[in-house]
Amino acid sequence: MNIAAAMSDIADQPRTGAAPRILVVEDEASLSLLLSYNLEAEGYLVQRVDRGDEVEVLLAESLPDLIILDWMLPGVSGLEICRRLRARESTRDLPIIMLTARGEEAERVRGLSVGADDYVVKPFSLPELMARVRSLLRRSRPERLANRLKCGDIVLDRETRRVKRGERELHLGPTEFRLLETLMEKPGRVFSRAQLLDSVWGLSAEIDERTVDVHVGRLRKAMVRARERDPIRTVRGAGYSFDETFGRD
Ligand code: CA
After folding, report:
1. Alpha carbon of 103 to ligand 1 centroid (Å)
2. 17 in the Ramachandran plot: left (φ > 0), alpha (ψ -120 to 50) or beta?
3. 137 C-alpha vs ligand 1 centroid, how far in Å?
4. 30 Cα: distance to centroid of ligand 1 (angstroms)
5. CATH architecture of 146-242
6. Residue 94, SS3?
7. Interval 160-206: pLDDT, tens
8. pTM of this prediction?
């Protein structure tokens, strides 16, 4: 696969947080195609590469939510890739499912010892692999699988892109929506302005950090009426967070 094309694909992907992203590393073209077809049918965003030595270039640009990694690959083996990813802070917890051929079964222990989360022996059944993918994503990033985020009387629906407070529909711009989505994914966590810029506007955005304050202001205005409680905390010198105690009183 053409690296430049693959990288621009990743850059073009919307940062909605709605669909988990899966990188398929497999040199058998027909299997790679079959996997991506089936993963896309389940709503995942799929990237494919067919060489082991292209993986690190791709990951330097952007991290997926899960990697399906073939063992035998041209360039660098799946085993070696796994070892390298686990050795690095930024990819230490990246979920990895390794694919091994039948003859390599004795090697599976080695796969797990270098840190793969799961392994599947070829030929495998697609429903089984899909189930493993779902279960691994659920374990690693539960907030990425929920279509609806709910805190107190605020409900954010990622599929319809609507937000309601009680019975009232909130009219949010796309930036305010993404901002609220980011905060609601991790109630209680304090996000710095730089982290919010990265998550909401994208890594490449060159935007003044005060822009974040402007959009938080708009979000509050749309969300909070007269005597209603404001679920967003301003943490002085640190940033913003969605109050994890909101709706518990
Ligand atoms: Ca292979």
Report:
1. 12
2. left
3. 24
4. 11
5. Orthogonal Bundle (1.10)
6. coil
7. 889 999 999 999 998 999 999 999 988 888 999 988 887 787 755 67
8. 0.54
